[in-house]
Amino acid sequence: MRERSERRGRSLPATLRICVTCRWQGQDVLDDELIRPGQRLHDLVKAEAGPDKADRIQEIVCLTHCMNACNAVAMQRGKTPMLMTRMAPTLETARAMLEMLDRFDASEDGTVPDDQVPDAIPQARPLIPAGAMRSRNRS
User: Fold this and answer.
1) Torsion from C-alpha of 24, 99, 10, 17, nearest 10 degrees
2) CATH no. for residue 96?
3) Nearest CA to 124 among 92, 89, 97, 106?
4) Measured between alpha carbons, how far is 80 from 83 in angstroms, rounded to an integer?
């Protein structure tokens, strides 16, 4: 039975997908180089992750939360994804995101209490797909 569960990914660790196309506070690219703030944030997180977590940090193109950039989502099979928004492309944020990945991974259902969200992550909330609430209310 365990083999089937592992095949479906239930025992796989959580991943963090960071939008590399995000612009920050209306900037297309950062002043000092031709790189988008989302890409900078991804690169910082990946560098801070170290070899044990680096493969769990992934690029994603557009999370459609452009007005609240920079954005990322923590995901794991069987859990509600956690959207993190309004982040700055800084080393402090990168470290906070790795801390959140660990907390998300350790949670039963993907819920991380507000008082455990680091200050460098201004907003973290469950990512509920459009229509999910409507279909639950119809049951």
Assistant:
1) 20
2) 3.40.30.10
3) 97
4) 10
Range of the domain at 27: 2-138
| DSSP result, 56-81 | GEEEES--S-GGG-S-EEEE-TTS--
Q: What b/e string do you get for 32-64 counting C-beta neighbours within 10 Å, with b at 16 or more? A: eeeebbbbbbbbbbbebbeeebeebbeebeebe
Q: How many domains does the chain have?
A: 1
Find out whether 58 and 17 touch, Cβ atoms under 8 Å: yes
Residue 108 burial (CB count, 10 A)? 7
pLDDT in tens, the chain (139 residues): 444 444 444 578 999 999 988 766 555 555 556 788 889 999 999 999 989 899 999 998 887 767 777 899 999 999 999 999 999 999 999 999 999 999 999 999 999 999 999 999 999 999 876 555 544 444 4
